[in-house]
């Protein structure tokens, strides 16, 4: 009986020791894990990669780079700035918290560009000397600088530049007549631009080489609209198979595609492939059930429309 009691006491003592050890391990894990998780290392110093004095030609893109110590430090702690000569160079990079940065040499002169460890006075300053390009910077219109179009018409303007000018160096703007014409293009930094004539009148549209005084100005005369029409392309009646993707198209004259509206009389038979109708002269559809329906395209400028009869079969 005494032996059994001693054995129970020893077992309890061992259990207490194991539990104590587990508690120590668990507490150690709690103390260590938060320190290790996502801890950012701040650089203690930086130095330039390559020479701190850079010479480039006007119009050229170039890169500056630094090395951090320790190498595993986070570059989020860095920040770039143009200390002097902001008209000489320009950042081409939207991320200024990095160990490298892209710049553009805008005009001849000298600029100083600095990379600093945020919250400290530790930094590296580059001296950038921009020299005149061996190639003259030029911009010319493609075709006549005076154009005549009609209300509702889409048209394009284009320029030709010297080899040292990139598309990103250009910018289009409507100098006057913003109610007469509008841009029909999302990219204003290109050597060509699409526009739409909105109303009668005169407008001036300019393409400028950014950072210079060189530009080309187009004079646009918008006249009264001609007949605005849409006509059906292909047969009026179509037979398609269940589950088939197909396309309908119209031909438009003196009407921008944004004035076109597509409508389906029964979307349980045929539906738009993307679930909605684009303002376009062609539309993608899908046959979803057996039956017959009508698809209509309307010119909202005149109210006139064309229709297609679609029969879906097995």
Word description of this protein:
With 314 residues, the chain is mainly β. 11% of the residues lie in helices and 49% in strands. The chain is built from one helix and 24 strands. The protein has one helix at 2-36; strands spanning 45-48, 53-57, 61-69, 78-84, 89-91, 100-105, 109-117, 123-131, 139-141, 146-150, 154-161, 170-176, 181-183, 192-197, 201-209, 215-223, 229-233, 237-241, 245-253, 260-264, 270-272, 282-287, 291-299, 305-313. The termini are far apart.
What key attributes describe this structure?
mainly beta, 4-stranded antiparallel beta sheet, 11% helix, 1 helix, 4-stranded mixed beta sheet, 314 residues, flat
Describe the structure concisely for a colleague.
The chain has 314 residues and is mainly beta. It is 11% helix and 49% strand.
Separate helix tally: 1
Report strand %: over 45%
Please state the oligomeric state of the protein chains shown: single chain
Rg estimate, integer Å:
34 Å
Topology as a string of helices (H) and strands (E): HEEEEEEEEEEEEEEEEEEEEEEEE
Gross morphology is: flat
What is the SS-derived class? mainly beta
Care to count the β-strands?
24
Q: Low-confidence runs (pLDDT<50, min 5 residues)?
A: 33-37
Q: How confident is the prediction overall: mean pLDDT?
A: 88
Largest sheet: 4 strands, antiparallel
| Widest β-sheet, arrangement of strands | 1-3-6-5
Helix fraction, binned, reads 10-25%
Topology of helices and strands:
Layout: H1 2-36, E1 45-48, E2 53-57, E3 61-69, E4 78-84, E5 89-91, E6 100-105, E7 109-117, E8 123-131, E9 139-141, E10 146-150, E11 154-161, E12 170-176, E13 181-183, E14 192-197, E15 201-209, E16 215-223, E17 229-233, E18 237-241, E19 245-253, E20 260-264, E21 270-272, E22 282-287, E23 291-299, E24 305-313
Parallel strand pairs: 2-8, 10-16, 18-24
Antiparallel strand pairs: 1-3, 3-6, 4-7, 5-6, 7-8, 9-11, 11-14, 12-15, 13-14, 15-16, 17-19, 19-22, 20-23, 21-22, 23-24
């Amino acid at each position: 009986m005494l032996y059994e009691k001693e054995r129970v006491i020893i077992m309890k003592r061992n259990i207490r020791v194991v539990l104590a050890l587990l508690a120590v391990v668990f507490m150690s894990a709690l103390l260590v894990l938060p320190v290790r998780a996502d801890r950012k290392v701040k650089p203690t110093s930086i130095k330039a990669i390559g020479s701190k004095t850079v010479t480039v030609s006007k119009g050229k893109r170039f890169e500056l780079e630094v090395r951090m110590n320790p190498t595993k430090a986070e570059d989020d702690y860095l920040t770039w700035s143009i200390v002097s000569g902001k008209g000489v160079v320009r950042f081409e990079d939207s991320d200024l918290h990095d160990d490298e940065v892209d710049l553009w040499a805008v005009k001849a002169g000298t600029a100083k560009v600095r990379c600093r460890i945020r919250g400290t006075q530790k930094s590296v300053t580059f001296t950038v000397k921009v020299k005149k390009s061996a190639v003259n910077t030029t911009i010319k219109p493609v075709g006549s600088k005076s154009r005549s179009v009609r209300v509702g018409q889409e048209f394009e303007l284009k320029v030709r530049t010297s080899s040292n000018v990139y598309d990103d160096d250009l910018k289009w703007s409507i100098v006057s007549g913003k109610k007469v014409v509008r841009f029909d293009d999302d990219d204003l930094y290109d050597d060509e631009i699409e526009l739409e004539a909105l109303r009668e009148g005169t407008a001036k549209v300019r393409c400028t080489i950014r950072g210079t005084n060189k530009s080309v100005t187009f004079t646009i005369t918008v006249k009264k609209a001609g007949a605005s029409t849409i006509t059906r392309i292909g047969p009026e009646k179509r037979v398609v198979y269940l589950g088939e993707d197909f396309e309908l198209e119209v031909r438009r004259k003196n009407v921008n595609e944004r004035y076109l509206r597509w409508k389906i009389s029964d979307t349980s038979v045929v539906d738009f492939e993307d679930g909605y109708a684009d303002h376009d002269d062609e539309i993608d559809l899908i046959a979803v059930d057996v039956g017959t329906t009508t698809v209509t395209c309307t010119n909202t400028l005149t109210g006139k429309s064309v229709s297609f009869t679609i029969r879906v079969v097995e």
